[in-house]
# Entry
Amino acid sequence: MLLPVSRFESNQLLAHLSRTESLWLEQDLERMELATGQVLNACGAPLRHVYFPASATVSLVSITADGGSAEVAVVGCEGMVGVGAFMGNACALNDAVVQRPGCAWRMSTAAVLHHTRRSSEFMQQLLGYTQALFTDLAQASACTRHHGLDQQLCRWMLQHLDRQDGLDLRITHERMARLLGVRREGVTYAALKLQKEGVIDYRRGRIAVLDRKGLEARACECYGVVRRAYARLAGGPDSGHRAHPQAELPGHPHGQPAAAGVRCFGADGGRTAPEGRRRPQPSCER
# Structure
């Protein structure tokens, strides 16, 4: 027998909320289809909305005065784009650019502020994610200074694979170079090396990962540090997370059990589903 599935289940933050809390948020969540290259927030611009990705992946990108760029973090089904909105920051700290198309749930900044003030449960969920995101940002900073491009490229591919289904990445060497903040030639050389070793297969605009274990072995320790931070948020083996107690739904005297949260980051680093339930395809359908 399948357990009840919340329509917000495809985003980990929303899925871990109690059913009662989900009903409070439902009226302020809007389903959005996101396209590759779409800018959700521009650095310095007012934060009007936050996004909870379901099947989309969003790169947080810092831009320099001379036009250079680098991805500082990536957000997928585990998180939220626009954490500054509930911490009193009215403007975006970086560009948020859709890397992989898909759907997401959108909420206005005003609604986020209202619900975090209303609900400690919602606030604690967002604060827990923000802590994991800060770990991600700090580790990325150390990685760019102390690890070689080969290791950085492996880490980058793994972090994006963790936030999608399948082992194919739709991206060009030029785009990867911009996100890593390096020269295109360096990415091409590193990718060709991985291809010769049988780890990936590259065709223009598409990378197929043939040996994920091999990719993990070649990545620096930064990947594991960040993965464990998000796994703890998801209720992984080294986390103190506990499921919310069952809550009664308004209008349902006998109540309904809150659906178990999805886990985008399992112990093996990949996307997993709760035991006893078929993992649904990422969806924002009402």
User: Anything to note?
Assistant: Strands lie at 30-34, 39-41, 49-53, 57-63, 69-75, 95-100, 102-108, 168-169, 200-203, 206-209. The domain at 7-147 is CATH 2.60.120.10 (Jelly Rolls).
